[in-house]
Amino acid sequence: MWGPWATLGFGALIGVAFIILQSLTILVFLALTGDLSLAELADPEGAGLLASNGLLLVVATLVTAPVIVALIVLFAWARRGLPVLDYLGWRALSRADWMRWLALTLLFVVIMDGVTWLSGRSLIPDFLRETYTTAGVTPLFWLAVAVAAPLSEELFFRGFIFRGLSESRLGPWGAIVFAALVWR
């Protein structure tokens, strides 16, 4: 058992690992592709070009996500007392629950896309269109943005951080409010 400070400390270590891995990936990517020099990267316009580079997004996500997931699992295992999957909130859903959540998700997407369309905005943001067209390997793009990134994010925030803080004096509601205020 550990308290909220251990959760936040291990969470900070995971965050630092994420930043270091992303930074190293960008540097190696730039060295191998020659897309931008470090001087161009320091320029806001150059950094903007890099931010919408789909291939870099794919590579950085697929390099970083497995390491982050491994660290989350390692720290959850080190906590002891609960099996890792229980600590991270991974429970099997019944078929009825799957169907209910799928229906609610589809309804939400239809409503939000309808609101976006009625407001005259594009359903696909320019950033997503640009990263998709520059990704190079479409299946790896979808693996990165639809599997790897959401998996690592959900395990970190809604698994590791939420569970650790919800067992403190904050309780579940305090953990939700804390996470919403800090990571908004």
Keywords:
single chain, 184 residues, mainly alpha, 0% strand, globular
Write structural notes for this entry:
The chain has 184 residues and is mainly alpha-helical. It has one domain. It is 79% helix and 0% strand. The chain contains nine helices and no strands. The longest helix is centred in the N-terminal third of the chain and has 30 residues. The radius of gyration is 19 Å and the shape is globular.
* Rounded radius of gyration (Å): 19 Å
- Tell me the helix content: over 70%
Structural class: mainly alpha
Largest sheet: none
How much of the sequence is in beta strands?
A: under 5%
Compile the SSE list and pairings.
Elements: H1 4-33, H2 38-42, H3 44-51, H4 54-79, H5 84-87, H6 95-118, H7 126-133, H8 138-166, H9 171-182
Helix pairs in contact: 1-4, 1-8, 4-8, 8-9
Provide a brief overview of the structure.
This protein is mainly α and 184 residues long. It contains 9 helices and no strands. It has one domain.
